[in-house]
Amino acid sequence: MDSQEEFKNRICEEAERLIGSFFPLKLVELDGLLREQDFNLVNIFRVRNSTHESLKQLHNEEKDAMQSGETSLSVKGKRIFGTNDYIIRLVERLKPEIVTLLEAVNTLRMWIILLIPKIEDGNNFGVEVQEETLGELKTVEQDLLSNQEEIAGYFLSRAKVITQLTKRPGVQDYTRFVEEEDEKQFVGLRLMVAELRNACSSVHDLISKNIDKIKSPRNQSAIHSIY
Asked: Ranges for the Proteasome activator PA28 N-terminal domain (predicted)?
């Protein structure tokens, strides 16, 4: 058996496992994660408290610097400005789930690509099903990548405003922005968990219902339709 055939067999075995057990189990796991207390919307007050702690630390350092008589330039390199610890905890739990699903979806896409038969005239409905499924998987993959960008964007946006706060601590709108940004990120992370769960459900449902057409595209009658 050559390396190409070995690779194809390995991808096919992995794809079968993903559809057979990974996605159903991951759906349950993510649904359970969404129900956990940490992601409950009633805990938004804990997000606010964590925001206030990080901002209080910033203001205390500013006050200490003034009392010690240090210049802003001499203090600048010594400061470590805190982030929202509650948000960090949720992000650290969610990032591995995004990466795991990205890898799973990528494997499924490669699996279907390897199953696409050579181009022939007629009896192409099964191939159309494969292509439609590939399109759906690509959409899920793009959504997962967008989730990663959203998380990174939150930290960048927050850092920019914190930087402005260190220069202009009297501007209360900067403080309010940080509070609102943290709350928005908390809600966004909760929605992200729901989206990951729903993606697992939709991917598993789509492929399970069309597994015969995906695996044997030339053996299907043209009168069938994709679910």
From this structure: 5-44
Please indicate, yes or no, if residue 214 is contained in any of the structural domains.
yes
**Within a domain: 69:** no
Number of domain units in the chain:
1
Answer for the pair 41, 187: CB distance below 8 angstroms, yes or no. Answer: yes
pLDDT tens, residue order, the chain (227 aa): 578 889 999 999 999 999 999 999 999 999 999 999 999 999 999 999 999 988 886 766 555 555 555 544 444 555 667 889 999 999 999 999 999 999 999 999 999 999 998 766 566 778 899 999 999 999 999 999 999 999 999 999 999 999 898 888 888 899 999 999 999 999 999 999 999 999 999 999 999 999 999 998 876 444 444 54
- In a domain, residue 195? The reply is yes
Are 215 and 116 in contact, with CB atoms under 8 Å apart?
no
Q: What CATH number did the domain enclosing 100 receive?
A: 1.20.120.180
**Do the domain assignments include residue 71?**
no
